[in-house]
Design a protein that fits this description.
Length: 151
């Protein structure tokens, strides 16, 4: 029997940033050696709000300053290797690109791709959450930022 104290889901954030029909993605190494595509995404720092984490992770991974204005959804996914992720995905807009800024370790580059180009990446997507977040965004899913309450 699995001890519930050993199970710990990974709480992550991601951003959907659209510009001229293209979405901001990162090309990154997962598990050290597999090149995959993902939204700008990552984990929270201690005492950080979900929205602040999404903004920070996007800047660190893409060199794009962004603002977030809505929540697209909350996603629960278990990787085939057993890790469970709970992702809050935000939508927003690009404000400013810092072209000279180095990107986070493991990130090869930031790219802009259409939904069709992203779907064509298929197994190269880091998880099924990547395309699902974009499809939910395109379907108009938006929830207010004050959905979360920090006590």
């Amino acid at each position: 029997m699995n001890n519930s104290l050993e199970w710990s889901p990974r709480l992550t954030v991601a951003t959907i940033i659209e510009r001229d029909g293209r979405f901001l993605l990162v090309e990154e190494y997962a598990d050290g050696d597999e090149l995959v595509y993902n939204q700008p995404a990552g984990h929270l720092d201690e005492h950080e709000t979900l929205a602040a984490a999404a903004i920070r992770e996007t800047l660190e991974e893409t060199a794009w300053e962004v603002q977030v204005d809505a929540i697209v959804g909350v996603y629960y996914w278990t990787h085939p290797k057993g890790h469970t992720f709970v992702r809050t995905c935000f939508s927003g807009s690009a404000l400013h690109h810092h072209a000279g800024q180095p990107l986070d370790h493991g990130i090869q580059r930031a790219i802009w791709r259409t939904r069709e180009e992203i779907a064509a990446l298929g197994p190269k997507l880091r998880s099924p959450m990547v395309l699902r977040c974009i499809d939910d965004y395109l379907a108009g899913h938006r929830y207010p930022l004050d959905l979360f309450h920090y006590l």
